[in-house]
Design a protein that fits this description.
It is a single chain. The chain has helices at 2-21, 26-45, 49-61, 64-82, 85-94, 103-118, 121-139, 143-160, 165-173, 178-206, 216-221, 225-234, 236-247, 255-265, 270-288, 294-328, 333-342, 346-364, 367-385, 390-409, 419-431, 439-443, 447-462, 483-492; strands at residues 98-99, 213-214, 386-388, 479-481. By secondary structure, it is mainly α. The chain has a two-stranded antiparallel ribbon with strand order 1-2. The chain starts with a helix and ends with a helix. Pfam families: Na_H_antiporter. It is found in: Cell membrane. Keywords: Antiport, Cell membrane, Membrane, Transmembrane, Transmembrane helix, Transport. This is Na+/H+ antiporter NhaC.
Length: 493
């Protein structure tokens, strides 16, 4: 009977997963799953409606700071796309010249940088795909290698960028500072980037691709008019960036990104980092002529606020309420006990947390849904079952947060039915109709995704993460499982 009750308590997760897999928007799926969780909690734990509302609201309260960060992050992303920051980054890279052999690696480098600047993999892919696919066409590169490199690079900043919604949300759920997250995972992310870049270039050499250079502006000129119309319907800011790449913007418009990174690595609060990026973009944009007036600049901020408020913040409020109810009725306890029976130490527990994130991403087919659904489970596994100093537990929370976004964003690149892949196929079909793209076309050459997903799991399990600065997990006995208490609890059940 207790097993059946435990399964019933966990069933709201299956409801949410089922609704997401069926194609329902998370803004609808999350409220439905939350209402169902209310019903389950009322039946199993005899909890009153007011009690459930209180625990749902209390859980959402913890995310208030995250909401403000998200609003500023979306605003800065919109500003960077519209004021020429993104275009300056692209043009600096393209000024070096591109060949059939180097187009994939240049596309990878540009999208990595641009995604850090804008905090969006979707926007980066939409902005860069037209440039590099037609540039690839001109220099006779490999279309699949270039496409996969754009996808892998676009995810880099979405996983580590200060203004990435996945970074912000995953950090908020695990109660860690975004800046601390970036500092701890930064060295590992850079190592993955370097390894992936080397492998992409080696693959290009092995394919025997040509070495004649071409001009990116000519590639943009050759983009068919209908392609631009279709792209504008799907991602208007990407068209603005393309036009700025074509007409040119001063290279100093890349300074706001540099300032944000400097302030971040100085350890200042995330809200201050974002404010520096927004203010510097306005000042430099006035000189560059990319900002027409204060009112037009404020309109960009408002657009960013609307983007955050119309989807991600509302979704997080509902999922936060969902998590509060699930925690109140201890819905994740049976899963925690099962995992704790399997693992023998903290490192194995953390490895299982990584696998949970990857499995959740595949089941939900949406990285944000995975972050907010699986996050409370992995968080509870550490908080209730691991003992150690406050600093060491915080390090474990940082790794859980990194698992959530890394295995969410890059894991999505390896799942054929994921919404990310569907978005990519849609963009590719619109901007480059000369090739019929399929999911595995993107997956098979996405070197960055394979390197990132494989390395974080292997490094966590083997303990080799200690050789990467700031990335190693605390060792036992500094941290250890509360094994005795867990075994006693499990036997009572």
């Amino acid at each position: 009977m207790r097993v059946l009750i435990g399964f019933f308590k966990f069933s709201p997760v299956f409801v949410l997963a089922g609704l997401m897999i069926s194609g329902m928007n998370c803004l609808i799926a999350a409220p439905i799953a939350t209402v169902y969780a209310f019903i389950v909690a009322t039946i199993t734990d005899k909890l009153k409606f007011d009690e459930l509302v209180d625990c749902a609201v209390d859980n959402v309260k913890h995310l208030n700071l995250v909401f403000f960060i998200l609003m500023l992050a979306y605003a800065m992303a919109e500003i960077f796309m519209a004021t020429g920051v993104g275009a300056a980054i692209v043009n600096i890279a393209l000024s070096l010249g591109v060949t059939g052999r180097s187009v994939a690696i240049v596309a990878f480098a540009v999208t990595c940088t641009l995604s850090v600047a804008t905090g969006t993999s979707w926007g980066t892919f939409a902005a860069c795909a037209p440039i590099f696919l037609w540039l690839n066409h001109m220099v006779d590169g490999n279309i699949l290698l270039t496409t996969a490199s754009i996808a892998g690079g676009a995810c880099f900043g979405d996983n580590i960028g200060l203004i990435s919604d996945t970074t912000v949300v995953s950090s908020g759920i695990h109660n860690v500072e975004v800046v601390d997250r970036v500092k701890s995972q930064g060295p590992w992310s850079v190592v993955c980037l370097v390894i992936a870049a080397i492998l992409i270039y080696i693959i290009g050499i092995h394919m025997g691709l040509p070495t004649e250079a071409a001009d990116a502006s000519l590639a943009i000129e050759k983009i068919p008019t209908q392609v631009m119309v279709d792209l504008k319907a799907q991602r208007p800011s990407a068209v603005d960036l393309l036009n700025q790449v074509k007409t040119g913007v001063p290279y100093y418009m890349a300074i706001p990104l540099v300032l944000v990174l400097i302030v971040a690595f100085k350890g200042l609060p995330t809200l201050l980092c974002l404010s520096v990026g927004i203010i510097s973009s306005y000042i430099l944009g006035i000189f560059a002529g990319t900002v027409e007036s204060l009112n037009s600049f404020l309109a960009l901020i408002m657009t960013g606020f609307e983007g955050a408020g119309s989807w991600v913040i509302v979704m997080m409020m509902w999922v936060g309420a969902f998590g509060g109810v699930m925690s109140k009725m201890k819905a994740f306890e049976p899963l925690s006990i099962l995992i704790l029976k399997i693992v023998r130490n903290v490192r194995q527990l953390m490895f299982m947390n990584g696998l949970l994130c990857l499995a959740g991403n595949a089941a939900l087919a949406d990285e944000m849904a995975q972050i907010v659904t699986v996050g409370p489970i992995t968080k509870e596994l550490v908080e209730k079952n691991v003992e150690g100093s406050k600093e060491d537990i915080y390090t474990l929370r940082l790794r859980n947060s990194t698992f959530a976004s890394s295995l969410g964003v890059f894991g999505s690149q390896l799942i054929p039915w994921h919404v990310y892949i569907g978005f990519y196929i849609g963009i590719l079909t619109a901007v480059y109709p000369l090739y019929q793209f399929k999911p595995f076309d993107i997956i098979q050459y996405n070197v960055m995704a394979f390197v990132t997903v494989g390395s974080i799991l292997i490094l966590t399990l083997t303990g080799l993460d200690r050789f990467i600065p700031k990335f190693g997990l605390p060792r036992e006995p500094d941290v250890k499982l509360k094994k005795k208490e867990v075994e006693e609890y499990a036997s009572d059940k």
